Amino acid sequence: MWVTDQQLRPIDGVDLSGVPTHRDPRTLPPPRPTGWVVRPGAGRRGTVIHDAACAAAAGGGHEVGTLEALDALMRPGARACHDCPAAEILVPALELGQGHG
């Protein structure tokens, strides 16, 4: 548990000099990829848009922001991956914009 210095109070008779005051950067998890990956489809399959952290996005495609991912999803034959949050997030966002352009 991490607390602020304002939350700490000395304890009579207890040496707190061994208590870490900074988080060890070696114990932090690696940063999670952010954004979206647009991968061209294989063969006749269309483009697939993945969350950047999706295992299926590894090894190819282009990293893009949200607006570019939505643009890619609007192309004929494109679809959002259902194995990651792409379909859950991008499809409803795309539907919100229908009829407003």
Core attributes:
4-stranded mixed β-sheet; 101 residues; alpha+beta
In short:
The chain has 2 helices and 4 strands. With 101 residues, it is α+β, with helices and mostly antiparallel strands. The longest helix is centred in the C-terminal third of the chain and has 11 residues.
Topology:
Layout lengths: L35 E4 L8 E4 L10 E3 L1 H8 L5 E2 L5 H11 L5
Parallel strand pairs: 2-4
Antiparallel strand pairs: 1-2, 1-3
Helix pairs in contact: 1-2
What does this molecule look like?
The protein is an alpha+beta fold. It has a domain of 66 residues. It has 2 helices and 4 strands. Strands 3-1-2-4 form a 4-stranded mixed beta sheet. A hairpin with an 8-residue loop joins strand 1 and strand 2. Helix 1 packs across helix 2. It starts with 35 loop residues before the first strand and ends in a 5-residue tail after the last helix. The model has no long low-confidence stretch (mean pLDDT 85).
